[in-house]
Amino acid sequence: MFGTRRRCCELLVLHCRSFTALMAAAPRSPSSVPAFSTGSPTPTPKRLGTHNGTFHCDEALGCFMIRLTSKFAGSDIIRTRDSKVLETLDAVLDVGGVYDPSHDRYDHHQKGFSEVFGHGFITKLSSAGLVYKHYGKEIIAKELQLDEGHENVQRLYLAVYKSFIEAIDAIDNGISRYDTDQPPKYVNATDLSSRVGHLNLDWMDPDQSAEKENAAFEKAMMLAGSEFLESIHFHVKSWLPARSIVIQCLSSRGDIDSSGEIMLLNQFCPWKLHLFELEEELKINPPTKYVIYQDDRGKSWRVQAVATSPSSFESRKALPLPWRGLRDDELSRESGIPGCVFVHMSGFIGGNQTYDGALAMARAALKF
Length: 368
Ligand SMILES: *[C@@H]1O[C@H](CO)[C@@H](O)[C@H](O)[C@H]1NC(C)=O
Ligand SMILES: *[C@@H]1O[C@H](CO)[C@@H](O)[C@H](O)[C@H]1NC(C)=O
Ligand SMILES: *[C@@H]1O[C@H](CO)[C@@H](O)[C@H](O)[C@H]1NC(C)=O
Hints:
Protein name: MYG1 protein-like
Pfam families: MYG1_exonuc (PF03690)
Organism: Dioscorea cayennensis subsp. rotundata
Distance between the termini: 79 Å
Radius of gyration: 26 Å
Strand order of the largest sheet: 1-3-2-4-6-5
Keywords: Signal
Family: Belongs to the MYG1 family.
Strand content: 5-15%
Bound molecules: 2-acetamido-2-deoxy-beta-D-glucopyranose
Shape: elongated
């Protein structure tokens, strides 16, 4: 034990005390126990290991996230590839060749590793995804000040994986977004993984010391961690309320039209992604064809054709061809519906001056 301790002092220990502002989000557990007995009454912080040298977004985020748990709050970070040192640590991320959550070993580089998040997600995990898989619910529950079993914790656990973590796992494991051999048409180097990569020491930098490298890693943890927390907060204050509105509007769609294919969005919110997710989750059939809502100035009403998928420009049932590209009186004559304002050339959206007019357009379009 003594030998280990001395070795350890030769290594650089990141205390990450500059994190206090971010860490305030994660209450430290008074029950956290010392990592090993030192014979002294003050509890020793736990020790997390990750590799030194070039760092990536996955372990920067993984280290940040694991320190938000009760078990590892305030722990020190030791960056090394020395397996004798790694063996003595309380958790090891992205190095060591072992995935064993019961001993907090979270490497993903070893042959045969194939862990995925589950819940329908099949992207191979990185050290970030591994930490999130095992501790994500605890972290989110603390941020929301809810029990881990609360349905909103489970909901956010999946939503934050989908919108934030999965891309980091995929990028780290070299999985591209599309099945294609085509070279990309342009470079996109502003995503989080790229920005973390840019924080590594420049080869031209005369100071390539471990101290400088560790300071850069600390910045990387801060960058990835703050965006992770922002993602959770966005989901709490914006995504969840929008989801509730869409659930409520979907459930009363039968009152709008007996077809069940027209939804009135009675309070504007970002509805598109929720609509796709909820239709699938609630097994809604037939799928919604049109959504009616008041325009942002509250002056007229819009009727929007729902797309075939979240990323598609194609509509499930575009507004009728003869209406497209027409405006005002000409459109009203063509549709036989007074007060029409416009229908877009592609037929994905149209407008009427009143709610009744927009509903009439949707109903007529359904029968077209
Ligand atoms: C990692 O740290 C060890 C000392 O623990 C050092 O010998 C090695 O050069 C470092 N590796 C890199 C890539 O910086
Ligand atoms: C670049 O990548 C980021 C992250 O993957 C993405 O959010 C952004 O939309 C991309 N930008 C473009 C222009 O594709
Ligand atoms: C469309 O809006 C106009 C203007 O308010 C209105 O006169 C017309 O009745 C509306 N159409 C229908 C079918 O209600």
